[in-house]
Amino acid sequence: GRFRQPMPDAMLRRQKLLLPLLLSAVAWCQSADVQLGQLTVCVIGADALENLDEGEWFGSEASDPYATLKVGTQTCSSVVLKDHSKATWNHCCSFGIVAADTPIHIVLTDMDDHGDDDLIGLACTSVHTGTRWLDLIRHDTPSIVGTVQVSVVYSLLDRGLAAQPSFVSVNGSAGSRTADCPSDYQLTDCACLPASAEESNACAHVSYHDRGCSGAATTALLSARCMKPPLGVTPSYSTWPSPASLQSATEEVAVCPHESTMVGCVGSGTRAPPTSTRLDVRSCAAVRDSGDSGSEFTATARCAAFGTSRAAFAVNSWQYESISQIGKPAVAYCPTGFHLSGCACFSEDKDMCKGATLTADGGCAAHFAAPSGFLELLQHAATRRNGIFAQARCLWLGDASSLLVLGADAAADAQATACQPLSDGDAQFERERGAFVDQLQNASGYDWRAASNSWWAQRAQSFDFSRATDAAAEQGVTPEAVAALMQGYGVQVPTEVPTLPSDFPESQSPVNAIKESVKQLPLAELQDAASTLSSLFGGGSRHHGRHRGSHDPAPPAAPAASH
């Protein structure tokens, strides 16, 4: 668990002195018509990252990336993932109260054991709520050097705080195969921990039922996470198993239906449990090693629909523990304003996860499968085995009106305004980069701009009123023409209804989508597209060099934890 030191008297006195100043600042912002809100940002992962370790002494197959979030003077960094061209961190940070025009900067860096860390790429976005992919750029190249995915939740202060749910964790009694929620609570997830690594099958058949969890062996610790909704809120729950697939599959994916939110997930198997369970944005996957094929296994998502009474937004908050701390659990907590609804253990390597438990202080603890002896521990270290992630599934629940959710055009305008300082002074690279994206789309047949946000692109600064008038005359009097004319006078007319974050579909990496798109092309076009994409993603950035441009900030120091 986490322990907090008592606050010194001097610090308390300083806080009492600073409180009136803070209240005055808030009042000034409100009088100046500046919106304020509580900001939480999660960097989910990144794809198509350049290998900056290639050609170096002791170089490896991929970079060692870590992500840093920057909001104002605050920074927050993820762990380092060794040898990853595709990275998943699910690292969440709460930045407190910030203005609505504050930019969010994402810096991806390659950790070097010797010398300075290398900048992989930069991204920027505004604080509007949602989950999105962003282009990664460097100012020494016009290419796109990768993509990064983030979730942003911005809750406006002037809308008040809706009544919140209450949560409890319930452990099954000794010798029991079930764990049940109290009568006025509803189940959101189950966690299971075998008594020993040799009894891994003790959690192979865990499943959901209406009021709790069942299916664990009597020697396992089975826990239920339970929610009591606020007064007037009546969520409906359902369970969605992964579809049947080949017994040779290494992943089984379960997805919640549209307009519902995944609050938990369990993996199970007919003979043995999956090696781990991975929580994604709107889905979950039961994962097993390729050598374990031959038996059926499944992932089951626990889904909640809150209707129109509440807006729900779920994120994953992961905490990593390396094998150097193999006797210590990894414990993940939810960011400020979120509630723990689910818990699971995940590792990229086989036989590293033993199971998960719910802590008394509202955390999710993932436990290592202890090695059989000192020699196996040395083997883990020598083969650079990955550690484990504790995965906390975290739920934000409130009134939809309290979230800053923008339509596509308004979001693009807000992002362009917030991120303007990161643009190149002469816009030369923006023009070259635009041509690069056009090449990318032509070569693959895939609409990159619709999938990965080109926040760096220059947007028109002035409205061409005469052109809009001519267009309106040609089209006749249509709602679109009226809206365009009114925009010319500075009146913004909403042309689309923002979609609630809980309605967003699962979004795969744009790079993977391009690869799938290329596979559908005829052979001749396929060869041309593959060649073009290889040069654009692979060789384009190196052609222009690897050194930071004059506009790029120096990479922050690497965090202590590594992977």
The percentage helix is: 10-25%
Q: Tell me the Rg in angstroms.
A: 25 Å
State the low-pLDDT regions, or none.
1-31, 539-551
Structure classification: alpha+beta
> DSSP strand (E) fraction?
25-35%
DSSP, total strands: 27
Average pLDDT across residues?
Answer: 81
The neighbouring-strand order within the major sheet is 4-1-8-7-27
Biggest β-sheet: count, sense, barrel? Answer: 5 strands, mixed
Could you say which overall geometry the principal axes of the C-alpha atoms support?
A: globular
Cα distance, first to last residue? Answer: 22 Å
Helical stretch tally: 9
What does this structure look like?
With 563 residues, the protein is α+β, with helices and mostly antiparallel strands. It is built from 9 helices and 27 strands. The strands form 8 sheets. Strands 4-1-8-7-27 form a 5-stranded mixed β-sheet. The protein is globular and about 75 Å long.
Topology record:
Layout (H helix, E strand, L loop, with lengths): L8 H23 L4 E12 L17 E7 L2 E4 L9 E13 L4 E7 L7 E8 L4 E9 L2 E16 L9 E6 L6 E3 L5 E8 L13 E3 L2 E3 L6 E8 L7 E6 L9 E5 L5 E9 L6 E4 L3 E5 L9 E9 L5 E11 L8 E3 L6 E8 L6 E6 L5 E5 L5 H9 L5 E11 L9 H12 L8 H17 L3 H4 E2 L11 H11 L3 H10 L21 H10 L3 H21 L20
Parallel strand pairs: 7-27
Antiparallel strand pairs: 1-4, 1-8, 2-3, 2-5, 5-6, 7-8, 9-14, 10-13, 11-14, 12-13, 15-20, 16-19, 17-20, 18-19, 21-26, 22-25, 23-26, 24-25
In short:
With about 575 residues, the protein is an alpha+beta fold. The chain has helices at about 10-30, 375-380, 410-420, 430-445, 450, 465-475, 480-490, 510-520, 525-545, and strands spanning about 35-45, 65-70, 75, 85-100, 105-110, 120-125, 130-140, 140-155, 165-170, 180, 185-195, 205-210, 210-215, 220-230, 235-240, 250-255, 260-270, 275-280, 285, 295-305, 310-320, 330, 340-345, 355-360, 365-370, 390-400, 450-455.
